[in-house]
Amino acid sequence: MSGIRVLAVSCLLALLGACATPARVVPPSVHAEQHFVRTGKFALRVSEPYQADHAVQGGFVWQDENESLMLDLTSPLGATLARISINEAGALLRESNGKETRAATAESLVQQVLGAPVPVSVLRHWVRGAPAPATAVEDVQQDAAGRMSSFTQEGWKVDLGQYDALGPTRLTAVRQHDTQTFHLRLVMAP
Length: 190
Prior knowledge:
mainly beta, outer membrane lipoprotein receptor (LolB), chain A
């Protein structure tokens, strides 16, 4: 499994330009209610028995405007690795080398690129500190302030913590799929 395929999961993990190296999304200075922007760092590790772990880490800029989502993924040194765009027309992964992969939905894009199902659409809710409303939630825990601290949704065990005004500044999600274990960690900048 290549590093870029693992990378696709973290952003599609998780959570999905006209030039070969996509321009970086610059967060606006004012956050409208329908315009949600987070920046931070991510780490994704995929483990399989008797094999070396596959891992990738770097930075991200997450820009969500209701019907569209744009996610830039950067290396630890700040170079843009990929851009993921999701809108009513479908999902697009554009790698820094110009290669593009398209699919009808973010979930099908991840399946196509990685070969494993990842609930991309629910990650949009998790980064705001809530489970997705349309699917079942189990094992819900809240912190002393009544905010979500952990839950299980679509097979992912999600832990949230250290909230700011936009939501959790730490998110960890773990899922076992067949013989693979996916570990996703997001640390949002305050």
